[in-house]
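Continued from yesterday's entry.
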Amino acid sequence: MDKFFKVTEHGSTVKTEVVAGITTFMAMAYILMVNSSMFAELGTVSYNAIYIATAISAVIGTVLIGLLSNLPLAQASGMGLNAFFVYTVCFGLGLSYANALVLVLFDGIVFIILTVTGLRTKIFRAIPNSVRMAIPAGIGLFIAYIGLQNADLIVGSESTCSALASFNIFSGTATWESIMPLLVTIASLLAIAVMSVKKVKGAIIWGILGGAVLYYILGFTIPGFYNGFTENLELNPFAAFVDFGTQSFGKVFTEGFDFSAYLADHSMAALIILIVTTALAFCLVDMFDTLGTLYGACARGNMLTKEGDVPNMEKAMLADAIATTTGAICGTSTVTTFVESSAGVAEGGRTGLSSMVTAGLFFIAMFLSPIAVLIPSCATAAALIYVGVLMMNVVKNIEWTDPSIAVPAFLTISIMAFAYNISYGIAFGLISYIIIKLFTGKVREINGGTWAIGILFLLMFFLTH
């Protein structure tokens, strides 16, 4: 393993890579449950079928990125992209589950072509430095926001859109049952911080496991917490594989190209415009999610090349493209490199061996679907918040006194978190960069690639969003 993955050469150890791989899995295992629940709302595919589809595509994508690029990253059905698939493409635009899979398949095929021709790397290098420097911090804030929401520390509010959860158990607005998980998240986060200060190896994963143990111990203080606990456990994992084989696997080919239901109420021209614009949205979001995550995670681990590029980027992007195509065949939304991979990088992961461990755990998770839900989100949320803290350190390298740099950087960081989308953050940063250069007489500093990407982003916003 040391020779194949060059572990020692990268300044790591096999033990560190294993811990990093486990940490990454623990931080992103929630996608198995979240993705399954989201797709189940369609009514045409079950929770079990998508659970297996999500796990298989995660295994394939993570193995590929580990073997091809030797990077400690993991892949799975992307958050945001799955919501776009279900709520916009299916519920909003009226396409069926299988029809939407066709668009994901197109996404993967186009990505493979762009990667083989080398255009994806050129696209990434067209992103100006002011935006590139801000990407890791934006992703960090985005990860932290996901963690705060997963823990229910930040909740919805009619007046302010989001607000801090109530801790007031004296006036009746909160109960011990509602605040107990919140306290577990806070305790886990602080424990991770303390262990990190003391240089404890595996601080993040110990924080997750400790938080899970604390959660179930405190469960004894809540009446009825364990009522029906064992009865709700499904001990036969193979039932999920049956649903996968009959409801999701291969549906993109057997039913996906049948648009007769949509054409019953729309014209062929409307269908063509829908396919082109929606496929464009899938491609752009997937492309910049992956590019942003690759750069952000590698920057956090000091793994960028002397030129500031991601090592083996072409191979990493090829793995992403193949995984997206595989995901469509399995029956899930676009597969992309997960920002939660930064959790493993923070634990010291530096090679593809870490990815192999994560992939192995996703494989095991296929047979442990009932047990996977036992890891509470309040425990994994603490890890996400802490990784967000770590990734914010790059803001010190941004020249905040120069508006031409500060504004694109700030928009990149803020829009990523507030719009819940990495791509939108990059889009706002890039477009603002172009406009500022254009109106300050520095149009020659904008290269052709930057113009092209900016126009594509504008098309995405005006035609698909």
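--- second protein ---
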Amino acid sequence: MRFEVIHTCKQSGARVGKLYTEHGVIDTPCFMPVGTKATVKGLSPEEVKATGAQILLSNTYHLYLRPGHELIERAGGLHKFMNWDGAILTDSGGFQVFSLSSLRKVTDEGMYFNSFIDGSRHFFSPEKSAEIQRALGSDIVMAFDELTAPDISHERAEEAMERTLRWLDRFASVRLKSHQTLFPIIQGNMYADLRVESLKRSMPYATCGIAIGGLSVGEPAETMYAMLDALAPHLPKDMPHYLMGVGTADYIVEGVARGVDMFDCVLPTRIARNGTAMVREGFLTIRNAPYAEDFTPVDDTCDCYACRNYTRAYIRHLIKADEIMGGRLLSIHNIRFLERLAAEIREAIMQDRYLDFKEDFMKQYKG
């Protein structure tokens, strides 16, 4: 795996790059749809590819519990198992265990947690997370880290950061498959000094990418931007920078201006299943009554399958009638919206006008 910077915007410093993997080349900045359980919910791999997506994210925690990483390895690895020939990134399971709250216990050795399926007790160590991801055979493997809530003390944040760094050293001791690359994860909560320290101490383990974790977990947007601003001068120039769990248009546009190259989030497909579309102005709640007789496309500037073939009124009918097709169509649209946004961002960077693009976009975007 290698990363090539194609162009750096003279106006903003944002970059266009190419990340070369065994399963294809990824143009950055990019958005990665989330296929938690080896599928982007409701969509076929062909439909996801048609949106322009070049890389998917899958979930170590969920695939470990069901169907099991050993089974997936016997099937020929995650790419073959889910019939996706593009690149795949697997997260480490740390966020999912963090979100279990009362069902988990964190120690220096790792995390104990109860299965959300049957309540059975399990344990993830850094080594176990690495072994699971090795079996899955993803292209990008995420380090096992400890996430923390955004309102903790500096002392508690430092303790979690130190544990994450110790876990990183243990994780890196597990030999991965030849095509796999480890991305360390920067932690440090909402404290700039800890964030910078975490980055600098993680760098010896980074060969072709580094991730920023523990943001967009409930803190104000201004706080997240402040953490990215603190990190930006120290981020490696020859590697992609991945901001984990971020998928709204405004966060992506602002993140790119602060040096971020890769994004992922379940939001586009989750809100689609609830009847909400992503548009240039923010969010369009199609399930609402005003769209019952709206016979225009979801977005008349969009070239996705849903917008080319169906109206707001029809999709609203499907959502209200609990028909699966409604969520599928909006999922296609929302992923395509973010893939188009990423392409527009890359074009603006190549033309050295990214700050102008950002200003124009944010004037229109209402969230």
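The mean pLDDT is 96. The radius of gyration is 20 Å. Will compare against the first tomorrow.
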